[in-house]
């Protein structure tokens, strides 16, 4: 069981039930949801929740380094509770984004044509395992 209160405290973020619920949701669902998806998922349980709160909370969490914001593949930002570098694989059939845990620090801290690399992201597209299985 993860102590979300402790995580908020450690990052200097004031405690609130909404903040904890948003963090808990992202921890439980590794689907890289958008702010809107998170809002839709939590509104039943918390009718007082506003979209603005969700957006602001996600922004704060990202700035504090608790979450990673992904603006890959589409014009929408998706969030995840995973700040360890990994590869993203997006299925063109079911639109799911999968995490592939493979380290790829080969270019980190390297200089490329005078530019210093701090991080790099690998985003792959293809047909996921479960879509391939159902095709056969
Ligand atoms: Zn798929
Ligand atoms: Zn991911």
Calculate the terminal CA-CA distance, rounded to whole Å: 39 Å
Helix content: 25-40%
Shape descriptor reads globular
Number of domains: 2
Compressed to H and E, one letter per element, the order equals HHHHEEEEEEEH
In CATH, the architecture of the largest domain is: Orthogonal Bundle
Number of strands: 7
The profile of the biggest β sheet is: 3 strands, mixed
Report the β-strand fraction as a percent range. 15-25%
Overall SS class: alpha+beta
In this entry the ligands are: zinc ion
How are the SSEs ordered, and which strands pair?
Layout: H1 4-10, H2 17-28, H3 35-42, H4 51-63, E1 68-70, E2 78-80, E3 87-91, E4 97-100, E5 111-112, E6 115-116, E7 123-126, H5 129-135
Residues 91, 93-94, 96, 128, 130-131 line the site of one zinc ion.
Keywords:
5 helices; Arc Repressor Mutant, subunit A; 136 residues; 7 strands; two-stranded antiparallel ribbon; alpha+beta; binds zinc ion; 2 domains; single chain
């Amino acid at each position: 069981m993860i102590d979300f209160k402790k995580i908020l405290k450690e990052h200097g973020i004031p405690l609130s039930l909404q903040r904890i619920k948003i963090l808990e949701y992202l921890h439980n669902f590794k689907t890289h949801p958008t702010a809107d998806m998170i809002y839709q998922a939590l509104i039943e349980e918390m009718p007082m929740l506003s979209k603005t709160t969700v957006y602001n909370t996600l922004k704060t969490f990202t700035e504090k380094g608790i979450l990673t914001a992904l603006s890959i593949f589409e014009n929408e930002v998706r969030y995840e509770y995973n700040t360890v570098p990994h590869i993203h694989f997006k299925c063109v059939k079911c639109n799911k984004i999968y995490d592939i845990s493979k380290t790829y620090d080969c270019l980190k801290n390297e200089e490329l044509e005078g530019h210093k690399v701090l991080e790099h992201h690998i985003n792959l597209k293809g047909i996921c395992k479960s879509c391939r299985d159902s095709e056969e």
